[in-house]
Amino acid sequence: MAALRRLLCTGKSRLAVCFQREFHRSTPAALQVTVRDALNQAMDEELERDERVFLLGEEVAQYDGAYKVSRGLWKKYGDKRVMDTPISEMGFAGIAVGAAMAGLRPICEFMTFNFSMQAIDQVINSAAKTHYMSAGRVPVPIVFRGPNGSSAGVAAQHSQCFAAWYAHCPGLKVLSPWNAEDAKGLLKAAIRDDNPVILLENELMYGVPFELSEEVQSKDFVIPIGKAKIERPGSQITVVAHSRPVGHCIEAANVLAKEGIDCEVINLRTIRPMDIETIEASVVKTNHLVTVEGGWPQFGVGAEICARIMEGPAFNYLDSPVFRVTGADVPMPYAKTLEENCIPQVKDIIFAVKKTLNLI
Fold first, then answer.
1. Residue 340 pLDDT more than 70?
2. Does the annotation mark 109 as catalytic?
3. Which of 3-12, 258-267, 342-351 has the lowest mean pLDDT?
4. DSSP label at 201?
5. What are phi and psi of 302, to 5 degrees?
6. In the annotation, is 264 catalytic?
7. In this predicted structure, what is the pLDDT of residue 30?
8. Domains and CATH numbers, the chain
9. What phi and psi, each to the nearest 5 degrees, are found at residue 228?
10. 253 vs 211, 247, 248, 326, CA distance in Å?
11. Which candidate, 284, 265, 288, places its Cα nearest to that of 346?
């Protein structure tokens, strides 16, 4: 291969040109895949791999899912593997938990996690606690998934982020994907995990395409639960986020780079268990920290990160207080202009970074 590359670099022979063309043909191009299709691929691959896996929820079968995330799965796997349910979250979540206790591996879709409030007793008191209360004899391998957080124009009762709610509870693993790679790798990991897992998707990200490498396209690709990813290396300040705000942080970092401010952006990926080691290592390097989330500020994910940093060795490396960027501490308004002011925007992240660095 080294000899081939040397030959290609000369650019002097027809043979070299021919090899160049063949080399590019044999190198798979990155594929553009939406978050919706990445989730669909993950479920398709796991349904095919393990006959114990099945999907249930409102409109997931014949209608192909309220957001078309389960498109084509009912036609491929049939009624026993992809099941439409009545509009009763408490009922079908309970069925799913019982099926998991009996040895199956259900994927339970909530049309939105706001509706999971109807089933929170099943999620917390049954799914999260049974393995512990049975002294390890009864595992509950179940995935609760669906859109989480604010969407657009759906007002207060449909715009809550449940990352902090569910991450508060021992016995659950809580995942929050941003892009297509996260969506596919984390969902596959969740389905294979022997514990109850909450997968908090974002409705506004479903139709957004991302490049997937050859590695991610593999059926064997899985993202380890509990491991964050550095999306953009930097040296002056650490910015930590999860879900859709990760994209806002990268955009803000690119704007700040033009002003000579070098941000390191960390995609949290997993809320519980939290990869505090990656955050600490970054803070030791940059000496500054900003957290970004769409949820409310009080007792939020950013608040937990602040506490962990203060209690750990990285605290001694901070040159300024940690700054939190969060959703507004109000029920979500319906009006578009008010809604935009309640959700972290790129300008808010830029302001937070400059304030933390004492530049304003």
1. yes
2. no
3. 3-12
4. E
5. -65, -35
6. no
7. 76
8. 31-217 (3.40.50.970), 229-356 (3.40.50.920)
9. -80, 170
10. 20, 10, 9, 17
11. 265
- Residues 230-284 have pLDDT tens digits of 999 999 999 999 999 999 999 999 999 999 999 999 999 999 999 999 999 999 9
Report if pTM > 0.70: yes
DSSP state of 169: S
Using DSSP's 3-state secondary structure scheme, residue 272 falls into strand
Of 45, 89, 201, 264, the active-site residue reads 89
159: exposed, middle or buried (Cβ count in 10 Å: 0-12, 13-18, 19+): buried
- Has residue 213 got a pLDDT over 70? yes
pLDDT of residue 29: 61
Residues 6+ apart with CB under 8 A from 238: 263, 264, 266, 279, 282, 283, 285, 286, 288, 289, 290
Catalytic residue, chosen from 46, 58, 158, 231, is 158
Reduced to 3 states, what is the DSSP secondary structure of residue 57? Answer: strand
- CA distances from residue 264 to 66, 67, 210 in whole angstroms, order as listed: 36, 33, 20
CA distances from residue 171 to 31, 113, 222, 226, 360 in whole angstroms, order as listed: 36, 18, 21, 14, 43
303 phi, psi to nearest 5 deg: -65, -40
